[in-house]
Design goal:
With about 450 residues, this protein is mostly beta strands. It is built from four helices and 23 strands. It has three domains: about 70 residues, Bifunctional nuclease domain, CATH 3.10.690.10; about 170 residues, Jelly Rolls (Sandwich), CATH 2.60.120; about 150 residues, Galactose-binding domain-like (Jelly Rolls). The chain is elongated, with a radius of gyration of 27 Å.
């Protein structure tokens, strides 16, 4: 909230809190205390205690109005125990001395105010406290259902009525919570979903923090990590399906969040039986992790960081295995691979990177890569501009081939937003990818 301070210069139009103060003083009264309480679930309000010639009076107020009044009058402020439990900070986590602690929190207000709105820990993931911590959007209704359940407990029923195509819009989110107890651990979040009339949604888990990416890498926005169930195979939407996500929590992580978004438009109902959140050992495989902001240049082209910064795309990617292979190349260098796991496929799987075109407009980019294939129906090595006109350049490879170097060149016109490059396995077979090199040519236009 944009609250005034005692040092704020008076403006031509004072805010309403000034008028309230003048009225209270004109009636020879004073603000005796302010109590912050919970009205309903996470909705806070304030009780303002006033002392006048006729005794003590208590009135209800919006939280921001009460805080503005508190800044002017400096009364004692009391916070309900439940509110304090959910929203307070442990000062010892932010420095050795109280001076250091308050300075750190003050800096957080300036740099990451979203962190101050985070919950201390994950609670009410099973809706035992109603909708506390949950927010729905783009849905007709979000109600607890005691009839359609997985284990006898109420579930959340989301009714969707989309009259027009809305894309993969968000429909439900859980307020972020602090990652303090999970740093440097592997965690698993499992959401149990069921649907009728619409596809089961995509479940996502995200990490926020001042992540220290490798030297030389910069991004357009504050970097974040996400993983989701977009590539999960869902055989029957009308049965309870576990959507399991597994991530490693870096030391720099500040908060963890969950959200759900639609796969496609439709009218129907989605049920959620909560989220199970737990730590697991390193034997549990990780799900694909994405960087939540576009990098300003390609990165991890030698796969020394696994598949980090590489996205896997496709409508049926569960028919494909992907990973890092250190035995396929003669020099034992790491290379990425994608191979089909079904004998007859009409689908495709793409391994790609999306890069901001901010620094490449009016220039050309050159892409080199070494690729090997086995029994591949069709492999596309490509680079293309996504906007404004989607111009692309590609090499098509079929059958079984030894390690071969392929080269692509693409001009990036002024006004382009980003470009994407990678390799697509179309149908059955396998490819390996290594020695990806990226160059930019100056003065092309």
């Amino acid at each position: 909230m944009d609250l005034p301070t005692p040092q704020t210069q008076p403006s031509a139009e004072e805010d309403s809190s000034e008028l309230l103060v003048w009225m209270i003083h004109a009636l020879e009264g004073r603000v005796e205390e302010i109590a912050i309480e919970e009205l309903y679930e996470d909705l806070l309000y304030a009780r303002v205690a006033l002392r006048s010639q006729h005794g003590r009076h208590t009135v209800k107020a919006r939280l921001d109005d009460a805080l503005r009044l508190a800044i002017h009058e400096q009364p004692p402020i009391h916070i309900a125990e439940g509110v304090f439990e959910h929203l307070s900070f442990t000062l010892a986590d932010y420095g050795q001395t109280q001076e250091q602690q308050l300075a750190t929190l003050e800096q957080l207000v300036l740099d990451a105010p979203w962190l101050l709105c985070s919950r201390r820990e994950a609670d009410n993931l099973d809706f035992s406290q109603g909708m506390r911590g949950w927010t729905s959007q783009n849905v007709s209704s979000a109600l607890l259902d005691t009839h359609i359940t997985r284990n006898g407990k109420p579930t959340l029923a989301l009714t969707l009525q989309q009259e027009k195509a809305m894309g993969r819009v968000g429909i439900l989110s859980y307020q972020s919570f602090r990652a303090d107890t999970y740093r440097r651990k592997r965690v698993r979040a499992t959401a149990y979903l069921r649907a009728d009339g619409v596809p089961q949604p995509i479940f996502s888990m995200g990490l926020e923090g001042p992540f220290s990416f490798p030297t030389g890498l910069s991004t357009e926005d504050r970097p974040s990590y996400t993983t989701d169930s977009e590539t999960m195979q869902i055989v029957d939407t009308q049965v309870w399906m576990p959507h399991a996500l597994v991530m490693d929590i870096p030391q720099e992580t500040l908060t963890i969040s969950f959200d759900f978004r639609m796969r496609e438009q439709g009218n129907g109902t989605i049920w959620l039986d909560g989220i199970e959140f737990e730590t697991v050992d390193e034997g549990v495989p990780l799900t694909d992790t994405h960087v939540g902001s576009r990098p300003l240049q390609p990165f991890n082209l030698d796969f020394s960081h696994g598949l980090l910064f590489w996205d896997v795309k496709g409508e049926a990617v569960w028919h494909y295995e992907r990973g890092i292979d250190t035995s396929a190349a003669p020099d034992s260098s790491p290379c990425a691979f994608v191979r089909s796991t079904s004998a007859d496929l009409a689908s495709r799987c793409t391994l790609q990177q999306v890069v901001s075109a901010q620094h490449y407009q009016g220039k050309s980019i050159r892409l080199h890569a070494t690729i090997k294939t086995v029994s591949a129906r069709r492999v596309h090595f490509f680079v293309k501009r996504r906007f404004p006109n989607g111009e692309s350049c590609e090499e098509i490879i079929s059958g079984t081939t030894d390690w071969t170097v392929y080269r692509l060149t693409l001009p990036i016109t002024v006004g382009s937003s980003d470009f994407v490059f990678g390799v697509t396995l179309d149908g059955t077979g396998q490819f390996w990818l290594k020695n990806v090199q990226f160059q930019m040519e100056e003065g092309v236009f």
